[in-house]
């Protein structure tokens, strides 16, 4: 697996192998909800809940102190002067003394030695110049390619015969300081963000998950169809029980009928926000023609909001009584897991930024380069730009699209956009890659927050002496957008045109809202339903059990072609819409809430037919352009607006449909589609899946039950 080798290699460069790094970062964090709650109750901790978890191990301190020169990017980020190495200046000061020594030497026998040394030095200099790109990582005393560079293999074989790609992932609790601030995290193989999966369409992905963390977990493969492997979808409470602490589970599925940029993430509680995220790229054998602009390099760029506290603590606070629309506000943001915070700004945090770096990207000048952006965050919409570089959007959520040019990209959580830039700008050798969280959509202020994270794009022609030079590139003059809607995708046309079916068999009207119920609890609703994950009794397990025992409440509905299934499910907590055979379904969502919601349907891509403010026009169905609408898997419904989707329900299984703001899904904004139920009725569930529900501790780390607050409305 080239990607694994590559990342291992980079770790070695730092003198750390991944195990080593893991064990150094490892701590005995107590990550359960009970503990989180305890910390919350302690006013002294004042929600820096994790401070007791943040004691540095002595080995770790040693590791940090051997690290090198400061690369602080904090309060001074407005003035970027050319900075070369300190070493150069020092050399000049000592020069007169050196000259005297040289004079004495020429009169003595050591002159031959001097000539030899000079020749040697010259040879080294020439070699260094010729190998400047290769040596670049060492020149500044740190690596320019981050541990997770996510550079895609330039020699990739797009036409290789279908193969099986095996991975072993050990999930552990670690203490890590991606931007300087230490926090407890859950990571895969000691890496954050997680390892890249790079495969061809038709390949089988096999991931053995070894859970060495304190909490149970699961991994969901965002956007993957899982056609014929619904039980590998990784969705706790829908397709599986969590993988208990100490347990293993192997995900195995074939990727077929799709290509492009996807990702994976924890799907138990809000674990994705604790570090369980990573990229998954599927190459089509036609990739070169599906992408209409040829490019010289291809890579993934992950952006995300970043919290300093465990999601378990944050969700307890968010879901407690009297907390309407108060989603936890992130403290910062990361690009490929990197940023540098100024520790002086964060006096209440354990912070050491000496190992923190800004993400850097080395691009060959005069060429096109593809950047695959993924927003893996829990809440924030990002606006992203590479200063002074216009770019073309060429892919959206795995759908190749005809290039459309922009200055800024707007990307909601769980969405992906590929952009292609041309490194033909001549104003400098380095440019800021700015990723800005749209803070306008946050409910509260977070005094710790740094709303922007910047990366650096360097043209590789730079002389080795310029590798530490900060960009002095300019921002675009357009004002920054303040809303968290989707960017306007109505003009984006898929390269492979697929007309949407002319009509749908059924239209679901979904009312999206947050409502305050008993004990002042604010919860997310689709119509009158608010989901609570049945962690120990996933929908799929119940369905298969019900069908195989000919339980009437499950079998009776199989005679109707589509509709809500209220026979088998208590719709107040589990809204399940069911189809048999192949149906075309419309989802018309109306948002009665003041926030925008990126809605994601598992197992499918849908056509985005229309989006708008207020209410849909009366003639909405007669004015649709069905010739080739954008197909994607995550679409926003704007505040007090509406969105119309259409999809062909032809993939057998139970599929979650939910808001991808992780806090909202946990607050209940999730429903399910049981499609081709007649086929699901013939399935048997693999023993491994059933076994997960029997494991001790499999519910560790689940969200709080509402009942804990009953009778304690102000707790
Ligand atoms: Cu990324 Cu349930 O999804």
Task: Summarize the entry for a quick read.
This protein has 715 residues and is of the alpha+beta class.
Radius of gyration: 27 Å
Structural class given helices, strands, pairing?
alpha+beta
**Distance N to C terminus:** 51 Å
Unreliable parts: 1-102, 132-146
Number of strands: 31
Main CATH class of the domain at 506-709 = Mainly Beta
Beta-strand residue fraction: 25-35%
Write out the strand line-up for the largest beta sheet, numbering strands in chain order. Answer: 10-9-12-17-14-15
CATH topology category name of the domain at 506-709: Immunoglobulin-like
Query: What helical percentage do the residues reach?
Result: 10-25%
Write a structural description.
This protein has 715 residues and is an alpha+beta fold. Among the domains are: 52-130, no CATH class; 506-709, Immunoglobulin-like. 18% of the residues lie in helices and 28% in strands. The chain is built from 15 helices and 31 strands. The strands form 6 sheets. The protein has a 6-stranded mixed β-sheet with strand order 10-9-12-17-14-15, with no helix packed on it. It has a 6-stranded mixed β-sheet with strand order 21-20-24-29-26-27. A hairpin with a 6-residue loop joins strand 1 and strand 2. The model is unreliable at 1-102 and 132-146 (pLDDT under 50). The structure holds CU-O-CU linkage. CU-O-CU linkage is lined by residues 220, 222, 235, 265, 267, 414, 600, 602, 656, 658, 660. GO terms for molecular function: copper ion binding; oxidoreductase activity. Keywords: Copper, Membrane, Metal-binding, Oxidoreductase, Transmembrane, Transmembrane helix. Residues 23-36 have a biased composition (Basic and acidic residues).
């Amino acid at each position: 697996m080239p990607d694994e080798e590559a990342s291992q290699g980079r770790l070695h460069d730092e003198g750390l192998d991944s195990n080593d790094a893991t064990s150094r970062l490892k701590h005995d964090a107590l990550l359960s909800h009970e503990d989180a709650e305890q910390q919350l109750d302690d006013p002294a901790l004042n929600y820096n809940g994790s401070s007791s978890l943040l004691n540095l191990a002595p080995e770790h301190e040693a590791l940090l102190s051997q690290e090198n020169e400061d690369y602080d990017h904090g309060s001074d980020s407005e003035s970027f002067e050319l900075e070369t190495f300190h070493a150069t200046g020092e050399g000049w000061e000592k020069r007169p003394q050196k000259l005297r020594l040289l004079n004495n030497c020429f009169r003595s026998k050591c002159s031959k030695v001097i000539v030899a040394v000079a020749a040697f030095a010259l040879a080294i200099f020439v070699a260094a110049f010729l190998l400047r790109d290769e040596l670049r990582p060492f020149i500044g005393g740190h690596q320019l390619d981050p541990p997770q560079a996510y550079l895609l293999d330039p020699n990739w074989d797009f036409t290789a015969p279908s193969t099986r790609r095996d991975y072993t992932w050990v999930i552990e609790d670690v203490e890590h300081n991606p931007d300087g601030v230490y926090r407890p995290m859950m990571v895969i193989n000691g890496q954050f963000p997680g390892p890249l999966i790079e495969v061809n369409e038709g390949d089988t992905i096999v991931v053995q998950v070894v859970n060495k963390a304190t909490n149970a977990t699961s991994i969901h493969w965002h956007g993957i169809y899982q056609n014929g492997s619904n039980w590998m979808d990784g969705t706790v409470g829908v397709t599986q029980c969590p993988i208990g602490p100490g347990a293993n589970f192997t995900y195995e599925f074939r990727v077929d009928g799709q290509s492009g940029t996807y990702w994976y993430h924890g799907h138990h509680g809000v674990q994705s926000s604790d570090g369980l995220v990573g990229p998954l790229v599927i190459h089509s054998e036609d990739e070169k023609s599906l992408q209409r602009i040829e490019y010289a390099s291809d890579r993934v760029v992950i952006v995300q909001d970043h919290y300093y506290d465990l999601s378990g603590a944050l969700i307890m606070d968010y879901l407690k009584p009297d907390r309407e629309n108060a989603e936890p506000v992130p403290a910062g943001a990361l690009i490929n897991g990197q940023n540098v915070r100024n520790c002086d700004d964060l006096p209440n945090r354990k912070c050491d930024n000496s190992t923190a770096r800004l993400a850097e990207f080395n691009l060959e000048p005069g060429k096109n380069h593809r950047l695959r952006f993924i927003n893996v965050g829990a809440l924030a919409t990002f606006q992203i730009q590479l200063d002074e570089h216009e770019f073309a959007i060429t892919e959206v959520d795995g759908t190749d699209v005809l290039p459309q040019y922009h200055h800024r990209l707007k990307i909601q959580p769980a969405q992906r956009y590929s952009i292609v830039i041309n490194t033909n700008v001549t104003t400098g050798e380095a440019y800021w890659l700015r990723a800005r969280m749209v803070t306008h959509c946050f409910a509260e202020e977070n005094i710790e927050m740094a709303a922007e994270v910047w990366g650096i794009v360097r043209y590789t022609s730079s002389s080795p002496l310029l590798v530490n030079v900060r960009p002095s590139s300019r921002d675009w003059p357009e004002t920054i957008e303040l809303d968290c809607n989707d960017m306007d995708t109505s003009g984006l046309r898929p390269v492979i045109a697929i007309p949407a079916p002319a009509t749908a068999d059924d239209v679901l009207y979904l009312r999206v809202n947050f409502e305050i119920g008993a004990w002042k609890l604010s919860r997310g609703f689709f119509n009158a339903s608010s989901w609570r994950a049945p962690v120990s009794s996933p929908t799929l397990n119940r369905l298969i059990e019900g069908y195989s025992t000919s339980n009437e409440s499950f079998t009776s509905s199989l005679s109707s072609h589509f509709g809500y299934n209220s026979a088998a499910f208590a719709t107040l907590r589990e809204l399940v819409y069911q189809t048999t055979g192949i149906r075309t379904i419309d989802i018309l969502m109306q948002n009665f809430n003041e926030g925008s919601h990126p809605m994601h349907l598992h197992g499918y891509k849908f056509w985005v037919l229309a989006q708008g403010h207020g209410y849909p026009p009366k003639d909405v169905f007669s004015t649709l352009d069905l010739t080739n609408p954008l197909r994607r898997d995550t679409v926003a419904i704007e505040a007090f607006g509406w969105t119309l989707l259409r999809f062909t329900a032809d993939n057998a299984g139970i599929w979650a449909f939910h808001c991808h703001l992780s806090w909202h899904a946990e607050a209940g904004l999730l429903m399910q589609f049981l499609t081709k139920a007649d086929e699901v009725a013939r399935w048997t569930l693999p023993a491994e899946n059933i076994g997960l529900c029997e494991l001790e501790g499999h519910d560790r780390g689940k969200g709080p039950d509402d009942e804990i607050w009953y009778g304690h409305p102000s707790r």
